[in-house]
TrEMBL record:
This is Purine ribonucleoside efflux pump NepI. Residues 9-395 form the Major facilitator superfamily (MFS) profile domain. The lineage of its organism: Bacteria, Pseudomonadati, Pseudomonadota, Alphaproteobacteria, Rhodobacterales. It is a multi-pass membrane protein. One of its GO terms (molecular function) is transmembrane transporter activity.
């Protein structure tokens, strides 16, 4: 039966794992749509006769479009039915990937990537708020955790699979498969997700009103510090693995990192609603401990493996923690609040990558990956202190 009836906020008193698993599949294809070019970069560059840096730009322009368009488009579409909006966004993802699969023009591919980025900029904050309106408040954290688990699974499982498909059958096949998966998800959404009305924009829930709230600013600060800490070094993880001389190389590092991420997502789903602040403090401390281990014991394989496991544990609930924290600060237009947080998240990725690049170039007194590890450690320590002191902002449900 098609779930077409309009659902009132928090109407469901039970948690449907199937329904939220379906919503998780949306974030799964959302992160894959962004990152697939990074896994098949040489193949795309050779086929399109462009530099590898131009293929890398296809990932950067996607993230930039997400950051720039998130707030204005989420605000503009706030009154649109949530299910209808999700279907429109899925159509955009499908078109973006399928056009890339068959396009021969680099500029058409860039345009398609921008379309995908715009859809992602609206999807990430919208789907989290959509999910919270389907369950009572004490289950909001679990809902967001399960939905955003698609992000972690996309990075740890989906990207290697799509890379294998692209390398084995040609890079265009990866985009075709991804586009078809998006279409299949759209069909399931039509039949199994409930319809939820949009909300009206008001002076109290506008983006400007939201960023004036002290508690929101604290969450945005934590988002900035945490994302710079993680992505500043994650962008250059291959250099870190080379410095540590890890047996098994980048493959083993990503496997251990992925295992830690999955474990932390499972634990987060269980405990985030009752223990949000302890979860955030623990995750940040784990990330800081990982960086400290990399710095203190660069020649120990055992310590390096422990470091990647701790780092994965810290990374898994990254998106979930702060979207949950933001959603608890306001009662209406959670989409707008999470869009602000999402924009800060994406901009922080760019900042972390930019600073890391300057450190590698020796512009800030360093010329190798060690300087980026120190940057990450410093951000983790500051974020841990801020989170520990933010009892009111990171209150339990």
């Amino acid at each position: 039966m098609s779930a077409t009836t309009t659902t009132s906020p928090g109407a469901r008193q039970t948690f449907s794992w199937f329904m939220f698993g379906l919503m998780s599949s949306v974030t799964f294809v959302g992160i894959l749509s962004e990152l697939v070019p990074s896994g098949i970069l040489p193949q795309m560059a050779a086929s399109l006769a462009i530099d590898e840096g131009d293929v890398g730009f296809l990932v950067g322009v996607y993230a930039l479009a997400s950051a720039v368009f998130a707030i204005p488009l989420v605000s503009a579409t706030l009154a649109v039915n949530r299910k209808l909006l999700l279907q429109i966004l899925l159509a955009g993802f499908a078109i973006s990937n399928i056009v890339v699969a068959f396009a021969s023009s680099y500029y058409l591919i860039v345009a398609s990537r921008i379309l995908g980025g715009i859809c992602a900029g609206v999807m990430w904050p919208m789907i989290a708020a959509y999910g919270t309106r389907l369950v009572p408040e004490h289950l909001h954290g679990r809902a967001i955790t399960v939905i955003m688990a698609g992000n972690t699974l996309g990075i740890s499982i989906g990207l290697p699979v799509m890379t294998t498909i692209g390398v084995t059958f040609g890079w265009r096949s990866a985009f075709v498969v991804l586009g078809l998966i998006v279409v299949a998800i759209g069909v399931l959404v039509q039949f199994f997700l409930p319809s939820v009305d949009g909300e009206r924009m008001s002076k109290t829930n506008s983006p400007l009103a939201i960023i004036r709230m002290p508690t929101i600013l604290i969450v945005l600060l934590l988002t900035f510090l945490s994302v710079v800490a993680h992505y500043g070094i994650y962008t250059y993880i291959t250099l870190l693995v080379a410095r540590l001389d890890l047996p098994g190389g980048i493959g083993l590092a990503l496997l251990i990192f992925g295992i830690g991420s999955v474990i932390s997502v499972v634990l987060s789903a269980r405990y985030i609603d009752a223990y949000l602040r302890p979860l955030i403090v623990t995750a940040l401390a784990a990330g800081g401990a990982a960086m400290a281990l990399f710095l203190a014991f660069p020649s120990s394989t055992t310590v390096s493996i422990a470091g990647f496991l701790l780092w994965g544990l810290a990374f898994g609930p990254l998106v979930t923690m702060y979207q949950t924290a933001v959603s608890r600060q306001i009662d209406e237009a959670k989409d707008v609040a999470t869009s602000v947080q999402s924009s800060v998240f994406n901009l922080s990725i760019m900042v972390g990558t930019w600073i890391g690049g300057m450190l590698l170039d020796g512009l800030l007194g360093s010329s190798d990956v060690t300087g980026i590890v120190w940057l990450s450690l410093g951000c983790f320590v500051l974020a841990t202190i801020v989170a520990f002191l933010s009892r009111r902002t990171l209150r339990p449900a």
